[in-house]
Amino acid sequence: MLPALMVRFNLFESDDDSDAYNTGSEAESEESEHIYRESFPYLLEDEWFLKCFHVSRDIFKSLYDGIAPTLLSQYEATVYDRIAATLRYLATGTCTSDRGVGGYKAMPRAEFQAMFPQTLNAIRQLICNQHISLKPQNRDEQWEAMSYFRRILGPTPGVAFCAVGTHIPIAEPSEQKHLFYYKYGTYSLNALMIFDHRKRIRYVNASFCGAMHDSHLWNSSGVDSHFAQQHAKGNEKCNLLANSMFPSQPWIIKPKPGSVDPTFNARHERALATADTAVHLLKNRFKCLLGKPPIPYTPPECVAVIDVCCALHNMCLDENLPDIK
């Protein structure tokens, strides 16, 4: 795991703690508030935002309202332009090279490179704690998840989640390259993700180097302690599916080699495909994660990119936005 990453979020809780991700002053002047509110293009249609940024106008506006006070005057570009360029990069994997797509005009490269890290981290602080959490959103959620997985798995106790590792291609690091080497001359981060039955991301830790095997992701993440605590409390509704590379724990349901039930492994594979489908949806919406080209930033900055994409993925699911092909 990367030793010098930015602060990780407490992804086990979803309570809205404004102090945890307050990105601006609590006392903005009326004049400043008027300026940043007036600079948002209210007349643009929702379809335009979906086409250019793969998120809705409401999601864009929530980001704008959340970070505008602190980003108001630090760069020549407006707050709207900074968020637009950031989301355009996340959606397409490029920003400075596309011109006129859907009416969007790209930001000059030097300006984009200067503003991107701060804008991205402001968005990260605003949305990640709020939208990525293992804590149930309501009383019915775990029962719905259990019913979903029971229909596929049969009488397997208490399955509510799926866990997978997925590689995110990154540019060749300047230091410790061997830790990030994946295969065929490429470099990556190996991100541990936990999904629910609705394909929402309930946990993400993208701080693992690409050379780390899937078998080490779980033990190195620290997330096992959450499930161990739930198991100790007698909570039988938070088990999860994983592949055979994950460690053996009472709360981790893996394939069973040589099982007396010849259909169990096939059902397990179909149920775990929920996570594979979710990863596919995530990377299709935010094509910067596809590696064409690899994310051209330092590993810690790449972690921030992945975190923000995951939170935005959940926000898009909450709004029932159409999938991106």
UniProtKB/TrEMBL annotation:
Domain of life: Eukaryota
Cofactor(s) in the UniProt record: a divalent metal cation
Keywords in alphabetical order: Hydrolase, Metal-binding, Nuclease, Nucleus
Keyword Acyltransferase annotated: no
Main location: nucleus
Keyword Ligase recorded: no
InterPro entries: HARBI1-like, HARBI1_dom
Domain DDE Tnp4: 165-314
A GO term, aspect molecular function: hydrolase activity
Cell compartments where the protein resides: Nucleus
GO cellular component annotations of the record: nucleus
Family: Belongs to the HARBI1 family.
Protein name: DDE Tnp4 domain-containing protein
The species this protein was found in: Anopheles merus
